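Data card: per-record layout.
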Amino acid sequence: MPLKIRTYHDLTEPDRSGLAQQIGAQRQRVAERLAAVARVWAVMSGKGGVGKSFVTAHLATALARSGRAVGVLDADLNGPTVPALLRLPVASCTLHDGVVEPAVSPEGIRCFSMGLLLEDGRPLAFRGPEAESFVWREALEATALRELLADVAWGRLDVLLVDLPPAMQRFAELAELLPAPPAAVAITIPTPESEDAVRRALHAVRDGGVSCLGVIENMVGGPFSGDAGEALAWEFGVPLLARIPWHPTPQTWDELVRRVEGAS
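The structure for this 264-residue chain is written out next.
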């Protein structure tokens, strides 16, 4: 005799948790919160150690220097480094009527990050049964991303940069949450190993129907050898936006702004 297993939508009170309605309400809040944001750029890679946060912070600073209204969401919940790069102190966000006011850098960049809430050196910790953390932690991190987008008062922005963690799961969740898919900016370093990891990420971006503005090759001229940026740009038919030297100058970032905006 076949089992009759009810789907979520077959459940009725008091069985239903209201999860679908909660997520729907969050997505509606995300749409309302980002209504005044002209563009969202997701800075991604598919691997760690390539300098995503470094590029994000300096790109945001150059955009602000050129007169753009810029925001940065540090979506790397477990390794937040953007606040330090933007010279923002811990606990510099405020809460008004249930809405989070982002911190503002000396250049006027609006930023939110778990790094603004955590004490120096302390890890992000969710409350829950320790023995089952591998089950619910991923779901809670996805929920946290929804909450950050829905509850932070970003205001009017020309660009919101989202600094993503190495894995592609947060990118997929971000694309699903936003009213319109973000444009991706892929970061690599010159090495063949980085090229392979970023290739996989770019395939995921393309398979998801998301536009890629181009590739940025970081840490050029240092101890790493290879031509990953040029190879990936050619393979995926996107611009090589910049080859960021080991010691970049403000002019490096100003030129990157011109190229990224030209591709968007």
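Known properties of this structure: The CA atoms of residues 11 and 255 lie 56 Å apart. The first strand starts at residue 37 and ends at 44.

See the next section for split statistics.
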